[in-house]
Design a protein that fits this description.
With 173 residues, the chain is an alpha+beta fold. The protein contains three helices and eleven strands. One of its GO terms (molecular function) is coenzyme F420 binding.
C-alpha cells in the first residue's frame, strides 16, 4: 500500500482499575500486528431509531486504518448513511490468554479507484482467491456482479484487553 503508517497514538494508558498487579500497557505496535492478522471483526453500527446493530465481517488493516466492505442495501450501510460512528471489535474470545481489541471511529466511504485497487489486492492477499474483487462503480465487484461499498475507519480511540495478565490499555488518536 502506498500510504505511510501514521505515528503512534498520542497516549497509551494502562487503566489499573481493570488489570492485575504487574500488568503493563500493550504497545500500539502489538495491537497493529493483531489487527493486521485478525480474520474476523464484529462491526457495531447504530440503527436510525438508536438501537445497536452488530454483525461479523472481514476487514483489512492498512495505512493506519481498518477497511471493511458491505452491500449498499444492507442494514449496516443504511445505518451508516444515518450515523457513520462505528466500533470494530476483534480478538481471541478466550477468557485466559490473548488480547481483544476495540476500535472506535467514523466510517468514511472510499471511492478513489487507485485506493480501491490497492485495497482489493490487500483483501485477496489476506483472505485468498475467494475474496478477489474487481474495482467498479466506486466499490468492489464480486463474482455475482453486486458492488460492495468500502469504508475506512481511522481509529479515534482504541482499547486493548489483555488476558495474560489481565490489563486494559487505551490509545487516543
Amino acid at each position: 500500500m502506498a500510504r505511510i503508517e501514521p505515528t503512534e497514538p498520542r497516549t497509551e494508558e494502562l487503566d489499573t482499575r481493570y488489570g492485575e498487579p504487574g500488568a503493563t500497557a500493550t504497545p500500539w505496535r502489538e495491537a497493529v500486528a493483531l489487527l493486521t492478522a485478525a480474520e474476523l471483526f464484529w462491526l457495531t453500527t447504530v440503527r436510525p431509531e438508536g438501537r445497536p446493530h452488530v454483525t461479523p465481517l472481514l476487514a483489512v488493516w492498512a495505512d493506519g486504518a481498518l477497511y471493511f466492505c458491505t452491500g449498499a442495501e444492507e442494514r449496516k450501510s443504511r445505518n451508516l448513511a444515518a450515523n457513520p460512528e462505528v466500533v470494530l471489535t476483534t480478538g481471541t474470545n478466550a477468557l485466559a490468554g490473548g488480547c481483544d481489541l476495540v476500535v472506535e471511529g467514523t466510517a468514511v466511504r472510499v471511492t478513489d479507484e487507485a485506493r480501491l485497487t490497492a485495497l482489493a489486492g490487500a483483501w485477496e492477499a489476506k483472505y485468498g482467491a475467494d475474496w478477489h474483487f474487481e474495482v467498479r462503480d466506486g466499490g468492489f465487484a464480486g463474482d455475482r456482479g453486486n458492488v460492495a461499498v468500502v469504508h475506512e475507519v481511522a481509529p479515534r480511540t482504541a482499547f486493548g484487553f489483555g488476558k495474560a495478565p489481565y490489563s486494559q490499555t487505551r490509545w487516543r488518536f
